Structures are given as structure tokens and as C-alpha cells.
């Protein structure tokens, strides 16, 4: 079964304009959510700063040990 093209399916479609109604759309709850997300971001930043301070800004990166030269030296000595 072949699907009809989109131009035929949506030829009679007219989009409906939606209006914001505070009583239906829960008023200003979205503003409270944004405030909570901002508070969460501040707390995460505070925790990260505390962890960095506790760590003492030590570097934890260690470069990998390269073994190519060791193998070449063993081959030359023998």
C-alpha cells in the first residue's frame, strides 16, 4: 500500500491559533521551575568549587608510559 503525498494529506489543514490562559495553563508555575533550576545550578557550582578547594588544585593527569624506546634499547643491546 502506497502512502499519498503530504500535499494531498494536508491540503485541507488550517492551523488553529492557541491563546495563553493563565487559569487553564497553570499560571506562573513555569517561573517557579526556572527559579528552582537557577538555584540548582548555583548549588552545583558551589559544590564543584568546594571539591576543587578540597583537592588543592592538584593535577591528576598522568601521561601514558611509552614503551617503544625500551623495546628498541633491548634489541640493540643483545
Tell me about this structure.
It is built from 3 helices and no strands. With 78 residues, it is an all-alpha fold. The radius of gyration is 32 Å and the shape is flat. The protein starts with 5 loop residues before the first helix and ends with a helix.
In a few lines, what is going on in this structure?
With 78 residues, the protein is mainly α. The chain is 53% helix and 0% strand.
What distance lies between the first and last C-alpha atoms, to the nearest angstrom?
Answer: 75 Å
Q: Classify the helix fraction into a percent range.
A: 40-55%
Shape: flat
Strand content: under 5%
H-E string: HHH
Structural class: mainly alpha
Count the helices. How many? 3
Radius of gyration using CA atoms only: 32 Å
Give the mean pLDDT: 78
| Annotation, overall tally of beta strands | 0
**Uncertain residue segments:** none
- Main β-sheet description: none
Index terms:
single chain, 78 residues, mainly alpha, 3 helices
Layout of secondary structure:
Blueprint: H1 6-9, H2 29-55, H3 68-77
Amino acid at each position: 500500500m502506497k502512502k499519498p503525498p503530504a500535499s494531498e494529506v494536508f491540503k485541507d489543514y488550517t492551523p488553529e491559533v492557541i491563546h495563553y490562559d493563565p487559569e487553564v495553563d497553570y499560571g506562573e508555575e513555569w517561573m517557579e521551575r526556572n527559579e528552582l533550576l537557577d538555584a540548582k545550578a548555583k548549588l552545583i557550582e558551589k559544590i564543584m568549587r568546594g571539591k576543587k578547594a578540597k583537592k588543592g588544585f592538584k593535577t591528576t593527569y598522568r601521561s601514558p608510559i611509552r614503551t617503544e624506546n625500551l623495546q628498541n634499547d633491548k634489541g640493540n643491546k643483545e
